[in-house]
Design brief:
27% of the residues lie in helices and 24% in strands. The protein is of the alpha+beta class and 384 residues long. Strand 13 and strand 14 form a beta hairpin.
Length: 384
């Protein structure tokens, strides 16, 4: 039988929590995520496949970072520049066919200059052709859990069927931050001018980097179809927030909306320790055990985001299969505590057995059996 009970522990912080102040974004699609607590703070059309423009370059960058990690290339590896790459329009790092840029050059060219030419060089250098590379990008995206992404090229150049969702871009951003800490700081660099050819294109377009809000990446994007978008991340104190927006009307709108979202994410939520590791939250009955019940506790501190304003209460409940069957070993997961915070996804916290519970002795087994028989007999009697 599944038991659903209120926790024995009063979660004072939770019961004083409230909904966050509503945030209405001007973006047509958005996704905001708190990394440390793995909490989605905003989801607006986040799974809708949309043209990502240059924001899809971070998938090309991911593919190159993986090649570096696997030892297929080094930062000093030089790639040739094809006529196709050199002829790319839009944002470029002004490569010429006679150039042999290094992987280090190309990473900076893609991140800081948003170089379409650099992306084609990387694609051809790793896969032979850009078409083959785009297929590899799509396959890799599926393996990484990015279910709404399909790539037709390496740069985000407008192409039918080249799409990503805001959630997929956020998943990818988190990967670049957590899996490649040795390379991620490049996203915070503000200038790169390959062979002094790009004075008008040498500045990173990320509007948050110079605002002192903790921003350290990732990538802007713009086409007439997609509008203005940004995959961004910022750190304040012990918290990191990743956000993705798209569909803004102007470059200024993008900058303003990105700053508003960062301020909202850090000001409207606070990370709190709600329950300490080992703190009992419920008592579970035990079948045929040396003890009649056992405490249920979280194995680790429960740290969650809670809204900063006090307006509405939140609730918590404990779910487990009752009764637990002896013997039981301390630390064994047997249930979960589900914490409901208004306007945020439910938090599900695994609960473990607080202490060992051995099989009951002969006397315990006898009294349990007698009790079970008596209950069965009484259940079969007609009501008086």
């Amino acid at each position: 039988m599944r038991a659903l009970i209120r926790p024995a522990l009063t979660l004072i912080l939770l019961l004083c929590a409230a909904t966050a102040q509503a945030f209405e974004t001007r973006a047509t699609a958005a996704w905001v995520y708190d990394v440390s607590t793995q909490t989605v703070l905003m989801d607006k059309n986040a799974d809708q496949p949309l043209p990502p423009a240059s924001m899809s370059k971070i998938m090309t960058i991911n593919m190159l970072f993986e090649a570096l990690r696997d030892g297929r290339v080094t930062m000093e590896t030089a790639f040739p520049v094809s006529s196709r790459a050199a002829a790319m329009g839009g944002s470029t790092m002004f490569l010429q066919e006679s150039d042999r840029p290094t992987v280090n050059d190309l990473i900076h060219g893609m991140i800081v200059n948003s170089g379409n030419d650099a992306c084609v060089v990387v694609a051809e250098g790793l896969a032979g052709t850009e078409e083959a590379f785009a297929e590899q990008m799509t396959q890799r995206a599926r393996a990484l859990g990015m279910q709404s992404s399909v790539f037709k090229n390496s740069s985000g150049w407008p192409a039918a069927g080249h799409v990503m969702s805001m959630r997929d871009l956020g998943i990818l951003a988190k990967r670049l931050i957590t899996e490649f800490p040795e390379y991620y700081p490049i996203f915070a660099e503000t200038t790169f001018n390959y062979k002094d050819r790009a004075p008008a294109n040498a500045t990173n377009r990320n509007p948050l980097l110079a605002l002192g809000v903790g921003a350290d990446g990732l990538k802007t994007g713009h086409t007439s179809e997609a509008g203005y978008g940004l995959v961004g991340s910022a750190v304040q104190g012990n918290r990191r927030v990743i956000f993705v927006i798209t569909g803004l009307a102007t470059e200024r709108d993008r900058a303003e909306e990105a700053e508003r979202i960062v301020s909202w994410a850090f000001r409207q939520f606070a990370e709190k320790t709600l329950v300490k590791a080992g703190q009992r939250v419920a008592d579970a009955p035990v079948w045929m055990g040396a003890a009649d019940s056992v405490g249920l506790v979280p194995a680790a501190d429960v740290r969650l985001l809670v809204p900063a304003l006090v307006q509405e209460s939140a609730t918590a409940e404990v779910v487990f299969t009752s009764p637990l069957k002896a013997p039981l070993t301390a630390g064994t997961e047997v249930g979960e505590m589900i914490i409901h915070i208004p306007d945020l996804p439910d938090a599900r916290v695994p609960l473990v057995v607080e202490a060992d519970v051995a099989h009951g002795g002969f006397g315990k087994r006898l009294t349990t059996a007698i009790g079970a028989l008596r209950a069965r007999y009484l259940d079969g009697q007609p009501a008086s």
